[in-house]
Design a protein that fits this description.
Oligomer: homodimer
Pfam families (chains A, B): DGOK
Largest sheet of chain A: 5 strands, mixed
Radius of gyration of chain A: 21 Å
Mean pLDDT of chain A: 95
InterPro entries (chains A, B): ATPase_NBD, DGOK, DGOK_C, DGOK_N
Order of helices and strands of chain A: EEEHEEEEEHEEEHHHHEHEH
Structural class of chain A: alpha/beta
Organism (chains A, B): Phytopseudomonas argentinensis
Number of domains of chain A: 2
Low-confidence stretches of chain A: none
Keywords (chains A, B): Kinase, Transferase
Largest interface: A-B, 43 and 43 residues
GO molecular function (chains A, B): 2-dehydro-3-deoxygalactonokinase activity
Chain lengths: ~300, ~300
């Protein structure tokens, strides 16, 4: 096996993922665990990381670890204060280096981004945006990052001009799993496109007035659970798209995400006559971490 | 003590409340328990009721019990099929009489209402609307019934023309107690009016795009928990008011509710220059159950 040159880490609230990379950028090893930021005390981060990467380290030298995500939050390993937009996605001058006991390691944490008005924050997505820009430095348009909290960012001339968070995924989980709507939504079947589209079309009506209709239709008309779940997803994603700032209209859209979730957004955008490009999340995250690593190496 | 003439029962998902009334409508006794519909199997309803009212019954005769609420749902004591609007609030011709073992009892359950398009249902609120109409038979306007699920109904010439449900209270509980927003909302202080008003004013922006701002402001600007909770309440109630059908504009509004919750709606309506009248929920529920009892007595 080639020598491990550096290690890329994506450390979110619920998951820790690491990749060992060669000097030429090849992925040599990959490992993941459920030891996300949310489950760790401040003195447990180094151990959780070593659990995954110990075998990749060389006792004779220091290996650089470049990390992004909630690991840099106030409740994380060490806080990496937000960089304020407009700015380049990765504020490399403000990279944070937590102290480590293991002499084989040097860890760098990439700061997240903040926006003052309207107030907003992100962590981790800045690196995916940097990954997109590594491949397309001239990209001018929107980046859509679906998830528990969907993020939309406007990118131009290598800078993030502004961004907005939507709690779409979290609201879907709460409403379908814990609200009164759960009674008509049991199960976990595939997306039913006609029901999803019906939800999208209802996006012009205010959300609070449409939700209970799903319960009522299940009581009165026997609306099936799969259709109800799909309609709810369409209602929420439709509201997200309808809630994008007007100044963003007409810009191209790049969706960063995987599989069915990304496809759901691509389809929803297509119904608004917006042809979106889709990029895989892992590929873009790795490209963003590689861009950060290059700058760290150049600067030291 | 005067003789118990009949017994009024308001039986919701989480609560059971009963009142013993004299022939002249005076409340002689009141009792309540947490044995709501949601916690009872079909063969437990009679027992749960007797627990509260056994001492009010006379072995020498049959006492009429008139009940409204979720007790008539499919998962309740016995299903009382919905009456379809437009119709009088209480479909007394469709009253349901569950079988009882105790010979001292006769129980009548008042049906809820349904609407076909948009699909909607209610149970219990029909009786509060009937209570309002008992005092003001000519009322033409909207009835606002705040709660876990707020209900708004249009009433004219003694009929409910249409209604709409908003999941405002349930969304507030889920978002403030279980979403990422809970981190900035701990505690249970009184409503902070300036923050509530700020939430109301943000109602013109789509809800999904405004929620995460509360989290970001708490991270970036130290938004206090009480202000964040109050702002969320304003955001949701503002969205509810903005989501009322256009055809209802200009109609007078009567809020049925108690204490702080009713006052919160009255205040929110006042910011839209709508002067709403407020009526206490218990008084209106009792008036509605009395109206039903009068018809039952007249018809037998």
């Amino acid at each position: 096996m080639s020598e491990v040159s550096w290690i890329a880490v994506d450390w979110g609230t619920t998951q820790l993922r690491a990749w060992a990379l060669s000097g030429s950028g090849e992925v040599l090893q990959h490992a993941a665990s459920a030891r996300g930021m949310g489950s760790l005390a401040v003195d447990q981060f180094e151990g959780a990381l070593l659990e995954l990467i110990d075998g990749w380290l060389d006792a004779a030298r220091v290996t650089e670890v470049v990390a992004c995500g909630m690991v840099g939050a106030r409740q994380g390993w060490r806080e990496a204060p937000y960089a304020e937009v407009p700015c380049a996605p990765q504020a490399m001058a403000q990279v944070i280096r937590p102290e480590v006991s293991d002499k084989r390691l040097r860890v760098s944490i990439i700061p997240g981004l903040c926006q003052r008005a309207p107030a907003d924050v992100l962590r981790g997505e800045e690196t995916q945006i940097a990954g997109l820009l590594a491949a397309r430095p001239d990209y001018h348009g929107l980046v859509c990052l679906p998830g528990t909290h969907s993020k939309w960012a406007e990118v131009r001339e290598g800078q993030v001009l502004g961004f907005q968070t939507f709690m779409t995924g979290e609201l879907f989980a709460l409403l379908s799993g814990q609200s009164v709507l759960r009674h008509g939504m049991q199960g976990d079947g595939p997306l039913e496109l006609p029901a999803f589209d019906m939800g999208l079309r209802a996006a012009e009506r205010p959300l609070l007035g449409t939700l209970f209709g799903l319960r009522a239709e299940s009581l009165l008309e026997g609306l099936a659970p799969g259709a109800a779940r799909s309609r709810l997803s369409g209602l929420l994603i439709g509201q997200e798209l309808a809630g994008l700032p007007e100044r963003w209209q007409g810009l191209p859209v790049c969706v960063i995400g995987d599989g069915e979730a990304a496809e759901r957004y691509r389809h929803a955008l297509a119904t608004l006559n917006i042809a979106a490009q889709t990029l895989g999340a892992e590929q873009v995250t790795l490209a963003g971490l590689a861009a950060a690593h290059q700058q760290i190496r150049g600067g030291t």
